[in-house]
Predict the structure of LAFE_0G10946g1_1.
Amino acid sequence: MGFIHPENSLHQRDNNRTQLFDLNYDQLSNRASSPYDKGNKLDISQSTLSQLESQNDDQMSTMKEKIGALKSLSLRMGEEIRGSNHTMDQLGEVFEGTSTKLKQTFNKMLIMAKTSRISLRTWLFIFFVVFLLFFWVWIR
């Protein structure tokens, strides 16, 4: 069940399909490649060229101002980020110190509870009552 192909059709291409543009494409385009090109009968006066240059200069100065504003904004953002990172580092150190103090206090409380004759549940109840008292005073 093999397909039979003529030998000539395997290696030949249709030239019309592979050609990107028509041969007359270059003759059809009548645009000038630049304002200074005089070959296609385009004549731009010096006043028009100077007006275009002044518009270009105005747009360039506007763009320069916008880029300067973006640069100053990015520098301020960088300073703010560095300041925030420093603050976060300090806050992390404070939390680490607080965590260490709480662990030490809890360990001391456990030692105190073991050495006294009062049970751990009683100590926790006492601390809970004191906490509720402070919380009630704080709310009022």
Remarks:
- The CA atoms of residues 58 and 112 lie 80 Å apart.
- The chain has a mean pLDDT of 79.
